[in-house]
Amino acid sequence: MEPDASAPADLVKLFTDGACSGNPGPGGWAYILQHPASGQVRDASGAEPETTNNRMELAGVIEGLASLKRRCQVEVVTDSQYVAKGIKEWMPNWKRRGWQRKEGNTLKPVMNVDLWKRLDELLTQHDVRVTHVLGHRGHAENEACDRMAVEAYKALKRNR
After folding, report:
1. How far apart are CA 110 and CA 151, in angstroms?
2. Edge-to-edge strand ranges of the sheet holding 11-20
3. 0.70 surpassed by pTM
4. Are strands 127-132 and 73-78 parallel, antiparallel or unpaired?
5. Can you say whether residue 121 is alpha, beta or left, with left for phi > 0 and alpha for psi between -120 and 50 degrees?
6. Cα–chain-centroid distance for residue 2?
7. Ligand-binding site membership of 57 (annotated)
8. What is the end-to-end Cα distance of the chain in Å, rounded?
9. Which positions bind Mg(2+) 2 (predicted)?
10. Which of 19, 71, 137, 148 is deepest in the core (most CB within 10 A)?
11. Could you state, in order of their start, the residue ranges of all structural domains in the chain?
C-alpha cells in the first residue's frame, strides 16, 4: 500500500471477516489493518474448532482492535450486518437493559454476550466508525479476509 501523506496520522482501516464450516462447526476469523498515512499493512487470522459464524465475525473485529497499541480513529469495514448493526444500533439498548435484548414483550439474554462485552471495552479505547460492505462482491480486502478466515479453519481441521 502506498503511503497517503494527506491521511490523518491516527487513522487505521480495519477490514474483518469470519467464516464457519457448519453453524456450529469449525470457524475462522481474519483481519487486515491498514495505516494509510504510512502505507503499513498487517494482518492476522485464527480459528476455533467448534463455533458459529457470528462468533467468528465478532472475533475478527475484537482481535483487530485488540492489536492496536494506542488510541486511533478506526474505520471498521465488515460484511456482517450482525456486527455492523450490533455496534451502531443494538448495543446501546442491550447495555441499557443489562445486556438483555427485547423479543416481543420479554427480555432475553444477548447471544454471544461475552464477545459483545469485550468488543464494547475495545470500542471505548478508540474512535470507531463502522462501514458495512456486501460480502463476496469483489471488495478486495473483504475477499482477502474471507480467504484468510476459511484457510484458518481448514488448517485447524487438517492439524487435528
Report:
1. 29
2. 40-51, 25-35, 11-20, 73-78, 127-132
3. yes
4. parallel
5. alpha
6. 24
7. yes
8. 36
9. 17, 146
10. 19
11. 11-85+113-158
The string of pLDDT tens digits covering residues 1-27 is 899 999 999 999 999 999 999 989 999
Q: How far apart are CA 53 and CA 59, in angstroms?
A: 10
Q: Is 79 annotated as a binding residue?
A: yes
Q: List residues with catalytic annotation.
A: 17-18, 57, 79, 136, 146
Ligand-binding site membership of 120 (annotated): no
CB atoms within 10 A of CB 96: 9
Cell numbers placing 113? 454476550
Fold of 11-85+113-158: Nucleotidyltransferase; domain 5 (3.30.420)
- Collapse the DSSP code of 123 into the 3-class scheme (helix H, G, I; strand E, B; otherwise coil) and give the result: helix
pLDDT single digits (tens) 34-87: 999 999 999 999 999 999 999 999 999 999 999 999 999 999 999 999 999 999
